[in-house]
Every structure is written in C-alpha cells, then in structure tokens.
Amino acid sequence: MGAMSESVPVRCPACRRGHRYAAPSYPCVCGAPVSPPLDRQGTATAVTHPAWEEQWVTVRCSSCGRGAQWPHPELGCPCGTTLRIAVAGDTATAGATTAGATATENIPAGETSAGPPSPAPLPTPSPRRAFQPVAIRTARDAVTATALYLRWLGYRDIRRADQRPPSGIGIAARGLLAQVDPTVRPASVRDVECLWLTAMTESSRCVYFSLAGYADDARARADGLGVPLFVLDPTGVPQPVNSPADELDASGA
C-alpha cells in the first residue's frame, strides 16, 4: 500500500465535470492512519436521498486488524450535486497511510524452563496520543468529529443510536449515548432532559455535543443531572463547557 491515499478520477453524472478525489485518512485506535480504499474502476453516484446506513463504510486497519466505521467518501460538485465515491469492497481493508506501521498488541509468551515461569511484567499506562480533529463545515462533519473524539476517549462500537432524538443526531457506543446537535440554535433544557431520560432507559451514560452552545437553563439542568456538555468548534475539537465534560475529557471512557 502507498504511503498516501491515492487520488482517483471522478466524473459528476449530473454536469459531467471531471474531478480528482483522494480519501481522507482517519486515526485507528492503534495510532496508524487508515483511509477507505477507493475503487478506481467504480463510478461515482449522485446522492439524492441521504440514508444513514449508506453514509458509513467499515474500514479495517491492516496494522492491527481492527474494523471501524467511518464516513463514506463523498465529494461536492460545483453544480450542487453530492457525489458518493465508490469504495473497493463492502468491508474495506485499508493499509496504514504511513510507512513502517506495525501492530502493537502482540502479547509475549512466557518462556518455559526447569524453574517456575517468570511473572509477567505489569502493564504501564501510556499517555493518550494527541487528538486529531477534522474541520467542521457540514452536519456530517460534526458527526464525524464527534465519532473521532469518542474513539479518542476510548469508546468502541460507535454506531447510529437505536432511537432518533427529538433534535440533532444520536450516536451510540458501548455504554454511552451521545447527541450531536448541528443546528444554529443553542440546545434547550428539553433537549438535555430527553437525552438523559433516553440514556437512563438504556442504562448508559450520556453526553451532548452542540455547535451553537446551550441555553442557560440547559446548562444548569445538565449540571444537576451530571450530563457532560461539549461545544464543537469549527476546527472539530470538542470544548468542555461544564464540570462533567471536564472530567470525561480528562479521564476518558
């Protein structure tokens, strides 16, 4: 695999303009960047009725073998058409986009000898690597930035939430329910309470991400319920706005 994601020619089926597209890379939890392998023989299709299930593709890291869902590659044409780029295979296996990446989870086997085996060394905690955000320009980018951040915190199996929230977009991970609000209005106290109640019925923690911030009574209610609140800035870095969010950002999953 090459060290960088290779660009492919793309033609808009609506206006016939030609483009070049290179898939973005995303950080695997093992630290190796991966990117969806593009199908050079495939044809871009126009997105007319976006469906959540079609907006994600499973990419498997060739360094550690983990599979994770990332946004399906798309390109905006100047004519206004959104193009979905063809990906090689339904479940893609993407090589690390940096040379020399190797798996880091091999467990050394104990040596056998006449004497008792040596005790295995205790694992030493390693600091989290720096968070690598994606810039937010669309609602889709806000969901991607949130998913990246939750993986950075240590949450796994990120997927669409089973229940659609009254506003925004719901995503879930093991033991967590998150709401992403990409609208231009501050989140209301009702938004926070609905998220908390839904999480309670699922015995999960919850966290709220908003582009426009929160109404004063929503922040006060979140503090009382222990709901972490984050604001997504344009760079894609979630900013904690209350104490529960500060604690989650510091400790992780």
Please supply descriptive tags for the structure shown above.
4 helices, Restriction endonuclease type IV Mrr domain-containing protein, 3-stranded antiparallel β-sheet, alpha+beta, 6-stranded mixed β-sheet, 253 residues, Trna Endonuclease, Chain: A, domain 1
Provide an overview of this structure.
Residues 116-126 have a biased composition (Pro residues). Residues 105-129 are annotated as: Disordered. It comes from Streptomyces cellulosae. With 253 residues, the chain is α+β, with helices and mostly antiparallel strands. The chain has 2 domains: 1-99, no CATH class; 132-253, Trna Endonuclease, Chain: A, domain 1. The protein is built from 4 helices and 16 strands. It has helices spanning 139-153, 189-201, 216-225, 243-251, and strands at residues 8-11, 18-21, 26-27, 33-34, 45-46, 56-61, 67-71, 74-76, 82-84, 91-94, 159-160, 169-173, 176-181, 205-210, 229-232, 238-240. The strands form 5 sheets. A 6-stranded mixed β-sheet has the order 11-12-13-14-15-16, sandwiched between helices. β14, α3 (216-225) and β15 (229-232) form a beta-alpha-beta unit. α2 (189-201) packs parallel to α3. The model is unreliable at 90-125 (pLDDT under 50).
